[in-house]
Design a protein that fits this description.
single chain, mainly alpha, Arc Repressor Mutant, subunit A, Tetracycline Repressor, domain 2, 2 domains, 11 helices
Length: 184
Amino acid sequence: MRPALDLDHIVGRALHLLDLYGLASVTMRSLADDLGIRPSALYWHVENKQTLLAAVADRIVALAKPADGVAATTRSLREALLAQRDGAEVVLSSAALGLGGSAVVERLRAALTEAGADDADTGANVLAQFVLGHASLVQQRIQAAQLGAFDADPDAVARDFAAEFDAGIAALTRGLNVASAAAR
């Protein structure tokens, strides 16, 4: 018996396809095939592919563990982005189009507000751009390493660039006048 077709199930299956095959292979047709339905049936639940990807982006961000402090929040978001194949690209592109991924900024704004940042709104946007950009770069390097085009162990790439990420967050939070104890 096929599970009920609802947005939650559709997004879950899209996330599964994303992990298996990557973003380029997540199409409305491939998702419909995976669900055992006709592509037109998907449009009862999602307006178009960008709307679907926005929902996938929101799911990826929702998987970030709650964290205390600015640095811990950024690390949690980075881990969630890197945990899904092409996760950073999905969230970045959805956020760029204003369709999804806004929870990244919301989480960062809350952490910055709690830390006493001078301008939590601007700071959240700046940090979000850094988190999304850095995670995207790391994911591209992981994929290049898997193909032999980047000289590194694919399993070590995220770990190898973690210190660089932390240094960037530290520099940004200093510039945002976040108390050092709160930034941890």
